[in-house]
Amino acid sequence: MGSAEEKLETVESKEWYISAYASDGVPTSDHLKLRSASVSLAVDSIPDHHVAVETLWISIDPYLRATMTGTNDGLYFPQFNLNQVILAFGIARVIRSKDSKYSDGDIVLRAFLPVAEYSLLPCDLLTRKLDPASGIPFPDYLSSLGIPGFAAWVGIEVLGQPKSGSNVFVSAAAGGVGMFAGQLAKLKGCKVKLLKEEFGYDDAFNYNSEMSFDATLTKYFPNGIDVYLDNVGGKMLEAVLNHVNVHARIILCGMISQYNKVWTERDGVRNLLNMIGKEVKMEGFMIGSHMDRFADFTVEMESYIKEGKIRSKHVIYYGVESFLESLGSLFSSSNIGKVVIQVKAP
C-alpha cells in the first residue's frame, strides 16, 4: 500500500476503556475513558493467523449499554472487565497480515472490534471481507446489513410473521432497528405506523412527545394491533397491551426506555392479563440464537438494498474521540437514524 502506517514499526492508538460500571443513567467520562496505547506493527509482533488493522467505522448500538452495568440481568450480556477496551461491531482495513486468507488493504468486518484506532485481531473471528466495488456503502454493513438490520429481519420475518394487510406497530422506528423493521413489514404488504414521509410508512408519531400512549394508539390503531415489535418497553408496552387484537404477536427486541435504570426502578407492566384473554404470544429474542439464518438475511437484504427497496439513514460522528458522545446520543429524543462513527476515511 505504501501508506504511512505500513512504514512505521509502532503507532500510538487512541482507545476507549471502561474504568467504572454505570448501574444507572447514561455512562459518562466517570465510567468510560480515552487513553493512548502503543501498537506494534512489526511483522515479528503479529502472531500467526492474525492481522494488524486500522479501524474505519464503528457501530454504536443500544446493546452496548447493557455491557457496562456491572450486573447480570435484563439482556444478560457478559460485562466488560474494568480497564478492558470496549468492543463493538466495526469495519477495519488490514495493514499487515500473517494469514494467507487476508492481504494488506483488505476491508474486513468484525463483530467485536476494539473501539480503538489500531489493533491486532485473530483472523478466525473476522466476520467477512467487504468489497468496496459492491455498490453498498460501508455504513450499510453496520446498519441494514449489520446488527440492526438482522435484528429487524429476525423480528419481522422469523418471529413476527405478519400477513399482508396486518396492522404492524414498530416502536422507536426512527432508530437503528425500527427503521428496517418497518420497511420490511411494508414490503410484506402490512400497514405500518411511523416515519411516514421518509420510509413510506402509513402514519407516524413521536412517542417522546405524546402525553398519553393509550390515546395515541386509539387514534392510530382504531382496528387494533396485530404485530408489535417492541424496542421501547415500559409504559409503551403496557399501552400496546390495551390495543392488541386476538392472537396478536409481540416481539421483544429491546427496551431502550429501561436500559439506564436498575431493575427495581424499571416500569412494570400492569395489564399482562390482557394476553390471556386475547391469546397473545409475546417472545423475546437475541440475534445470537438465530445466526444460522444470517446468510439468508444477507442475501435477502442485499437484494433489497440494490433494488432500492430498503433505505438507511445514518447519524455519523467523526473520530474515535466521539465514542462517548455518540453512545449518549442513542438515548436522546432527537436521534433519528443509525449511529456510527467514521474513525478514518476508507
In terms of topology, how is this protein built?
Layout: H1 4-7, E1 10-18, E2 32-40, E3 50-59, E4 87-97, E5 107-114, E6 118-122, E7 126-130, H2 147-160, E8 167-170, H3 178-187, E9 191-193, H4 196-199, H5 213-220, E10 225-230, H6 234-240, E11 244-252, H7 274-277, E12 281-284, H8 294-306, E13 314-318, H9 323-329, E14 338-342
Helix pairs in contact: 2-3, 2-8
Notable characteristics:
21% helix, 27% strand, PKS ER domain-containing protein, 346 residues, alpha/beta, 9 helices
Describe this entry's structure for a reader.
By secondary structure, the protein is an alpha/beta fold. Helices cover 21% and strands 27% of the residues. The protein is built from nine helices and 14 strands. The strands form three sheets. Strands 3, 4, 5, 6, 7, 13 and 14 form a seven-stranded mixed sheet that branches. Strand 10 (225-230), helix 6 and strand 11 (244-252) form a beta-alpha-beta unit. The longest helix is centred in the middle third of the chain and has 14 residues, at 147-160. It is globular, with a radius of gyration of 21 Å. The chain starts with a helix and ends with a strand. The mean pLDDT is 90. This is PKS ER domain-containing protein.
